[in-house]
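DM from R.C. (forwarded with permission)

"hey, sorry to bug you on a friday — could you get me a structure for this? deadline for the figure draft is monday and I only need the backbone to look sensible"
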Amino acid sequence: MKRVLKVLHVEDQERDVALLARHLSHAGYDLTSERVETPETMRAALEKQEWDVILCDYSMPHFDALAALSLLKETGLDIPFIIISGTIGEETAVAAMLAGANDYLMKDNLARLAPAIEREMHEAENRRARRLAEEALRESEDRYRDLVEHSHDLICTHDLEGRILSVNQAAIKLLRYDQDTLLTKNIRDLLFSEHRDQFENYIAELQEDGIAQGLMSVQTRTGERRIWEYTNTLRIEGVTAPIVRGMAHDVTEQKRAEAEKAKLTAQIEKERQRLNNIVATVPGVVWEAWGEPDAATQRINFVNDYVETMLGYSVEEWLSTPNFWLSIVHPDDRERTALAAAANFASGRKATMEFRWVAKDGPVLWVESNSTVITDDDGQPVGLRGVTIDITERKTLEEQLRQAQKMEAIGQLAGGVAHDFNNLLTVITGYSDLAMRRLQTEDPLRRNIEEVKKASDRAAALTRQLLAFSRKQVLQPKVLDLNAVVSELENMLLRLIGEDIELRTALGAELGSVKADPGQIEQVLMNLAVNARDAMPEGGKLTIETENVYLSEEYAARHIGVTPGHYVMLAVTDSGTGMDEKTRARIFEPFFTTKELGKGTGLGLSTVYGIVKQSGGNIWVYSEVGRGTTFKVYLPHVDEGAQDYKRTPEMEEVLQGTETILLAEDEELVRNLAREVLETYGYQVLEAANGGAALLICERYMEPIHLLVTDVVMPELSGRALADRLAQLRPEMKVLYMSGYTDNAIVHQGVLDEEANFIQKPFTPDALARKVSAASGKLLCDVGLYYGATPTNAPTY
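My reply, with the result:
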């Protein structure tokens, strides 16, 4: 049952009154209170009723604690006066205590509030008792004896030697001696040894102060120990010899209860430690709570020590604050989590919840909480217990997996679209070129066809980027030193990013080799540089770094798709605007862009992603809004010496020819275009709609066939398989591969040889003629602006 407590608040802030009320309610008080903030309202409140305690703010705009204390003294009322402050200094506090305040408390240490009130109320009660005793001494002997005889407290007198002079009936009853026997005893005879030795100090205190207070342990006639709380005074005037008049209250049961409570508390702590030891191996927060999850009275009555390791909050914080677990749930998850916990409590069944906790030092952790309902003897829910584990790493990996699956699905779609579209673009581009050759410069139709050609070129650039993203390009890899690639491109990058951006390079020493298509790696660097430039509209710093790294098993476990091992890292860092979490999650998706309409296709970074993945590497982005962005590319290290790398200039072209060419292409429109183009340049063309037809032509055609031009992917017999079969029949025949798409098996298992001739669809008539000329051996090397890339498959920026 709660104790009624009447509190007068001298306070100008209602919220502080509410704060004190909560602490007192938790301490077991049923409150009757009133708030005043001026001398007039305080005086009226004191006149209206009696108060158990006054809680006073030290400083208010028009009224302070010292003024309130002075007003209380004017009334003559003896009410405990406790100062509550958030800023009171030690010297000020001492001055307030000297002025008559009973105690002072800081607002950040209200745990002392209830004990302080208990103590001061008890002392006030003692003071009242002393006053009654002193008044009784001044009353007539008859009234004094009547009071003594009927008092429930023990009242006696003794001299300074300790000889008992008088006792009341309460003393006789508790000590179990008759009156005559007690009057023959000395106070020392009734004390237990630990207090008997302090008797001289007790007498000295009386003689010096005129009053003595404290606890004493007395022994009854039957040997029982009783504990008395006494207040004794020394009377000198009106008596022949000094006598001590004392009043004692038997607090044996109270002290016994306190001892039992302390013992129980120790047992609870011991049990908590025992449970802690049991669950010490559980990598999570083990807890038990009583009350409804969303109720203000719900309390955690057990939580293991791991909670401090996991979240930084102490066990005491969890045990002392109702609903503490809910208060640290991420704000975005709090309502959902509270409703789920309440539903779990009401259902009486086991439940699993996922939500985010905010640790004490700031990090956000995803957790999984598994709980069961605690029921009473009637089967009614009274609490919950469970285990909550950190699943942040698992959630991160799940998100990476979902992103990887999404990117794979988008890549499959993009690759299929690009494959079919490239065949159509090859026809559009080719016939546009042929038509323009037949039209005079002043012909009005020529401008229309030129616009068609421009549109098809832009569409071809988009399909190349889609193929790069979907990892469907045919690669011509070389063993490279990335330092050489960066150094060779440095001048071009400076022109690309502009004068207001500072370019820095930090190239690792003794850098390992990687195996990748040089033109594709150039495209990665150029696209990342463009992306960085756009993120720094007002200038900044662009840093390109290379370094040998080892990705451990621990790193691989936290990054989907990563195999542990040695890698060469290429990092591109800008000091630009940075990205938020939602943007980072979609940055590699095709057609996703944060730029204004018409400012970008959204394919630059998706192209980078596809190239890195197809090269066997990984790419990760690290970015914060306002703090710039870093893209880190990891390419597998190879134990081979890097080949010489040099971007080559264009060479003189020889496009006309007379050789015989076997053309194998299953797409009729593309086949017709290629035949017409080759014949335009003087070549003799043998057509085959598939691999089988090409084999049959080679068996029947008796004249030399100088070059096989074949699509990579054809039904029944692929271009690579066809070339291998024909190499046995015509070993002198050379091969030129063409494709707008290759499936994964060819890309990852049957990649063309480093020296293989290849042309990417869609292509122009001139580009086809150049490639045929080069494949026929008329040029010393492939014609192209970039090493290993022709104008038709060169990177676009």
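R.C.: lifesaver. The first helix runs from residue 14 to 26.
me: no worries. Residues 742-751, 779-797 have pLDDT under 50 and may be disordered.
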